[in-house]
């Protein structure tokens, strides 16, 4: 196992895609149509609220890019209101199918296992209306979808490709104070899906390591594919550059972009703005940012007049138990006057929040990758993040931001103080961040995912041929 891990870590994402192509024999057909499963959260939902987050963005962007390389995608998700049409075209070649499974509203993610039978029934009904062989492959996201995908794969005789996104054993090993552990039923369910899948897609080599170490995944079935970022939307300047023109990834371009974004959002030009963007729950640790700001002000009280701390996002998961807990913490810390709580926003406005910020702060206890970090960097904003999960891949420590071991607010305060002490640091690091993010486009991710699909289909055919002599 250790040899597998070291080999995996030494192999870049681009190298993986190339090696996968070389291993495949000529003439192997890629899938024409994929059934993608996302039981607990719809790709049409607004990221940053409820259970919608990075996984939603991942599914939407990946599906669009797969369609652009002639792999049609049908996304099955649970209907959360009776007003939804049975099917919605998300983009050319991408269809979202709404499946009735349980009450539309008021059903928590933890209650969804009881609805998997109903959801599977809806998926099978849709499949029954098509000719045999309509779907070439199933790609499931998160363990709940994995169980539906397991049955669909067996029933349709096609491969199952699964992406965990998060893992119970990993989350439970790094719980935030007061956060509830993931239940044993989820651990059992994840173990079953790992065993059933033809291929497992991991965001990073570390995640691949965790699949092998915690869930005894077959190393030969694990493929590392870094998620991407929409570089047309998340870029240093809000104006789309003409082809061949610079996109503002210079120090001057980043500074001008930041100033323009602050005008649009009504933020002061001379402010130090550490931003939190994401779901408000203990796992994401927005409280660490607030406590770090309080430490910073204790050491440098004069900073208060030019400090603005936006928190953009809504309560989610275990954070729903205390939806106003963060506001009350800000009041107790004596910083309520400088913290701005904003609801989740659309992707275009989110890009402006990234551009306007001096630095994005991401003190998460667990992140399978951390798309928010890549999005912010693509907009020319450096990142201060916990050194957990995929964040050491997403952030180049000391170049595009700073990685912090642990969650001590004082450590984050020291990192933020570096931007206070050197006002040009955010601009210099922001330019490096924008350059770093250029290597995380969705085109590359979709191409590599297509290679994983093709390898899974080829292996399934080999297996069937061996069974029939």
UniProtKB/TrEMBL annotation:
Catalyzes the transfer of a N-acetyl-glucosamine moiety to 1D-myo-inositol 3-phosphate to produce 1D-myo-inositol 2-acetamido-2-deoxy-glucopyranoside 3-phosphate in the mycothiol biosynthesis pathway. The keyword Magnesium applies. It catalyses: 1D-myo-inositol 3-phosphate + UDP-N-acetyl-alpha-D-glucosamine = 1D-myo-inositol 2-acetamido-2-deoxy-alpha-D-glucopyranoside 3-phosphate + UDP + H(+). SUPFAM superfamilies: UDP-Glycosyltransferase/glycogen phosphorylase (SSF53756). 1D-myo-inositol 3-phosphate binds at residues 40, 51-56, 109, 142, 166, 186. The keyword Transport does not apply. Residues 260-434 form the Glycosyl transferase family domain. Residues 53-228 form the Glycosyltransferase subfamily 4-like N-terminal domain. This is D-inositol-3-phosphate glycosyltransferase. It is an enzyme of class 2 (transferase). Homodimer. One of its GO terms (molecular function) is magnesium ion binding. UDP-N-acetyl-alpha-D-glucosamine binds at residues 46-47, 54, 279, 284, 345, 367, 375. Its EC number is 2.4.1.250. Mg(2+) binds at residues 354-355, 357, 381.
